[in-house]
Amino acid sequence: NAGVTQTPKFQVLKTGQSMTLQCAQDMNHNSMYWYRQDPGMGLRLIYYSASEGTTDKGEVPNGYNVSRLNKREFSLRLESAAPSQTSVYFCASSEGLGGRTDTQYFGPGTRLTVL
Amino acid sequence: DQQVKQNSPSLSVQEGRISILNCDYTNSMFDYFLWYKKYPAEGPTFLISISSIKDKNEDGRFTVFLNKSAKHLSLHIVPSQPGDSAVYFCAATGRGGGSNYKLTFGKGTLLTVNP
């Protein structure tokens, strides 16, 4: 039982390049989330998916797109990377449909640098 | 506008003593609060939570206190151990639009427990 896995662990991009961050969970969870964490900041929600086939914007969605490929996988795409997107990206999942007491389990993160 | 504030970026305590981490919030709609712990190069892990209908929740060495009138919560760790050295994030969620309760995180407090 690996929990939440993310690939890649590290990535360096040039401004304007695109890439997709992959996330998968093996806990049969319904909800999945993408966060970013900047230095000295808390985690901020980019997008979330309360169930397969649905996605919704979080606090900082601009510059990102997501795909809930199936129940296990939730990917985050940067179409044209900008230096402001340099951050650590965390994927999370939760068992329920995102309710108040629905504990979120996080992956190890992807450290992205955009030059 | 920071809705969840952790005003102490760092805290250092001696092994065996009490660690007290503080968190303040401004949004009156928040009614469920969580603490997450994060080691370097890992994702955050859920530690303990408290609902606004309670003023205290205890789990082993960890106790969270909630003062609703002051919009303040604190995490007590007794006794502190070197393995507790990590960044601690306070998070809050509550009633709002939609069915998904989004987490709002503080910036985190780095706890160092010295042997």
Concise description?
The complex is a heterodimer of chains A (115) and B (115). In chain A, 0% of the residues lie in helices and 50% in strands.
- The amount of beta strand of chain B, in percent, is over 45%
Oligomer: heterodimer
Structural class of chain B: mainly beta
Radius of gyration of chain A: 13 Å
The H-and-E topology of chain A, N to C, reads as EEEEEEEEEEE
* Structural class by SSE content of chain A: mainly beta
Largest sheet of chain A: 7 strands, mixed
Descriptive keywords:
heterodimer, A: 115 residues, mainly beta, 7-stranded mixed beta sheet, 4-stranded antiparallel beta sheet, 50% strand, B: 115 residues, 6-stranded mixed beta sheet, 5-stranded antiparallel beta sheet, 0% helix
Describe it.
The complex is a heterodimer of chains A (115) and B (115). Chain A contains no helices and eleven strands. Chain A is an all-beta fold and 115 residues long. In chain A, the strands form two sheets. In chain A, strands 2, 4, 5, 6, 9, 10 and 11 form a seven-stranded mixed sheet that branches. In chain A, β7 and β8 form a beta hairpin. Chain B has 115 residues and is mostly beta strands. Chain B is 0% helix and 55% strand. Chain B is built from no helices and eleven strands. In chain B, strands 2, 4, 5, 9, 10 and 11 form a six-stranded mixed sheet that branches. In chain B, strands 1-3-8-7-6 form a five-stranded antiparallel sheet, with no helix packed on it. In chain B, β4 and β5 form a beta hairpin. The N and C termini of chain B lie far apart (38 Å).
What's the arrangement of secondary structure elements?
The complex is a heterodimer of chains A (115) and B (115).
Chain A lengths: L3 E4 L2 E4 L5 E7 L5 E7 L5 E7 L6 E2 L6 E5 L5 E5 L8 E8 L9 E3 L3 E5 L1
Parallel strand pairs in A: 2-11
Antiparallel strand pairs in A: 1-3, 3-8, 4-5, 4-9, 5-6, 7-8, 9-10, 9-11
Chain B lengths: L3 E2 L4 E5 L4 E7 L4 E9 L6 E7 L4 E4 L2 E6 L4 E6 L8 E9 L9 E2 L3 E6 L1
Parallel strand pairs in B: 2-11
Antiparallel strand pairs in B: 1-3, 3-8, 4-5, 4-9, 6-7, 7-8, 9-10, 9-11
